[in-house]
Amino acid sequence: MSGQSQRLNVVPTVTVLGVVKARLVGATRGHALLKKKSDALTMQFRQILKKIVSTKESMGTIMKSSSFALTEAKYVAGENVKHVVLENVHSASLKVRSRTENVAGVKLPKFEYFTEGETKNDLTGLARGGQQVQACRGAYVKAIEVLVELASLQTSFLTLDDAIKTTNRRVNALENVVKPRLENTISYIKGELDELEREDFFRLKKIQGYKKREMERQVAAAKHFAEEQVVGKVSMQKGISMNAAHNLLTTTAKDEDIIF
């Protein structure tokens, strides 16, 4: 892209130059702030990525242990343990709520698990397998906690990814498009103002020369008029012609110069 196409189409005046300079200052500050925001979001993005990796690794172990605990409960309590548990459960004891966390102006969703009220041991009266069912319940509670944490991390991960992409696009636009265009516009306006200043200086010199010649012409005309007046006066006093009076005055002036 040529420099001509990377500047604004403006009228080169001092007022416009001040406006464009103010816009360049604002673009520079905005670029610095967005760059800092992008760095902060990238740092948070990497931290969340590390947490996701570690959480997924631990989730494999927890899900394996919970599945094994379910197998033990079915083996001890029988295959119909699912129906017995459903009959004894009336409301969920483990619930999830959401909140938002502000990171460099970006609102990240966070999910948290909490226990509502006291957990009742509804399966205590089972004829058999009560201990294994409780162990299975505890294993799956841990699995739910890990899943909630992983869901929160992945949601924040995707939100940060979109925010970083948007911020980087703005940073690149300011750095590669807006700021060069404003700088080229300022250079263009300064060049045009310098050219106008040179034209004004040349115009003033021409006007000054014209006034000087006009003054010299007026002085010469006044001098000629005064000489004609003196020649006419001498001609009338001496009773001679104008040419003779003029020659007489010229000779007198030369004699005075010689005597002097």
TrEMBL record:
GO molecular function terms attached to this record: proton-transporting ATPase activity, rotational mechanism
Keywords: Ion transport, Transport
Pfam family for this entry, one: ATP-synt_D
Similarity section: Belongs to the V-ATPase D subunit family.
Gene3D superfamilies in the record: 1.10.287.3240
InterPro entries: V_ATPase_D
UniProt name for this protein: Vacuolar ATP synthase subunit D
Residues spanning the signal sequence: none
